[in-house]
Specification:
The structure is a single chain. This protein has about 350 residues and is of the alpha+beta class. Helix content is about 20%, strand content about 35%. The chain contains 8 helices and 20 strands. Strands 11-12-13-10-4-14 form a 6-stranded mixed beta sheet, sandwiched between helices. Strand 11 and strand 12 form a beta hairpin. Helix 2 packs across helix 7. The longest helix has 11 residues. The protein is globular. About 45% of the residues are buried.
């Protein structure tokens, strides 16, 4: 099992550790609800160094990326980031990722930990360009996410970079906690604002400690994967392996907004046909109307007790104190307000389809 550069710190803090995507990761420190509310109302810190990073450089770097992802990378300016899908020939999602434009012919792709090897092999296989170099920098890179409404105040005295001048999905490179060329990105997976810090792995412990020393007055908390999951689910952000995979297309997953059919990417023809004919199923959000916590794999039924879909993600929302979830259902049952039933322990439990995000 792999360990992140911050593993010893998590052990020292008494975190509950679990295996996730081949890494030993902290699932929680103090409790999911406390960590969740710290991010929603204050500031929390996540070690997400298990994520993968690829450098793509050379005069053909943009051409390679454009051939493989669903969004339009040509719209990116230096200092901007873009969410997108890496798609296969069937239009399925190999991974969802973020593209960073570091310089004119210099990009960084940030991919899911569980997909590092798959993504690397796929991108390498399709790199038939004369001037496009690939480098997997995942092992050398640490990633610390500082999330929550007080993130800017908590971090500002650690960097000369004006944090409040970085718009959402943009970034700057600069000195942070005495380390040069840190990528300070106004991105995250919580929906509560904040930053993601990309830095050399050998400086991870120093930067982590500097963040906690600097933000001590804010009662800053370390947060684990469990809170990261409840936070992203309240915002209806997709989780790879749950809500999206190689058998789901961006249109089915509600990711048409990052699917630009005027570009030529792998699987475009399939997705274009699907757009013209319409999808047969769609990812929806729902709230429980009866007592019960939805979980991945629960079957979804209509009023005639016919199976119409399956839950892909579910939890008890700490903010709403209700069961919420995502799942795929047949297209005729996707309208908000539609009543559905989940099979929980051989009992049908009521729920209602709602517009997302949940909070």
């Amino acid at each position: 099992m792999k360990k992140t550069p911050l593993n010893q710190i998590h052990e020292n803090l008494g975190a509950k550790m679990v295996e996730f995507a081949g890494y030993q990761m902290p699932v929680q420190y103090f409790g999911v609800k406390e960590e969740h509310m710290a991010v929603r109302e204050n500031v929390g810190v996540f070690d997400v160094s298990h994520m993968g990073q690829f450098k793509v450089t050379g005069s053909d770097s943009q051409a390679l990326i454009q051939n493989l992802i669903s969004n339009d990378v040509s719209k990116l300016k230096v200092g901007q980031a873009q969410y997108s899908c890496l798609t296969n020939e069937k239009g399925g999602i190999i991974d969802d990722l973020i593209v960073y434009k570091l310089a004119q012919n210099d990009f960084m792709l940030v991919v899911n930990a569980s997909r590092i090897d798959v993504d690397w092999d796929w991108i390498s296989k399709h790199n038939n360009f004369d001037d496009c170099q690939l480098e997997n920098i995942s092992e050398q890179t640490a990633l610390i996410a500082v999330q929550g409404p007080n993130s800017t105040k908590a971090l500002q005295n650690l960097t000369p970079v004006e944090l409040n001048e970085i718009p959402f999905y943009q970034f700057k490179q600069g000195n942070f906690a005495g380390i040069d060329d840190v990528i300070i990105s106004a991105t995250g997976y919580t929906g509560s604002g904040g930053f993601e810090l990309y830095l050399p792995a050998e400086h991870a412990e120093k930067v982590w400690q500097a963040i906690f020393d600097s933000a001590e007055a804010f009662n800053i908390l370390p947060c684990g994967l469990a809170a990261r999951d409840t936070l992203r689910l309240e915002k209806a952000y997709c989780l790879y392996g749950n809500d999206i995979n190689e058998e789901t297309t961006p249109l089915e997953a509600g990711l048409g907004w990052v699917t630009k059919l005027h570009t030529n990417f792998t699987g475009k023809e399939v997705i274009e046909l699907q757009k013209n004919k319409g999808v047969t199923r769609k990812l929806i959000g729902f709230k429980m109307t009866e007592r019960g916590i939805p979980r991945k794999g629960y079957e979804i039924f209509n009023e005639k007790e016919e199976k119409i879909g399956e839950v892909t993600s579910g939890t008890q929302s700490p903010i709403l104190n209700e069961g919420i979830g995502l799942g795929y259902v047949k297209k005729e049952f996707t309208a908000p307000g539609t009543t559905i039933w989940l099979k929980i322990r051989n009992k049908n439990v009521g729920a209602k389809i709602v517009k997302t995000p949940f909070v």
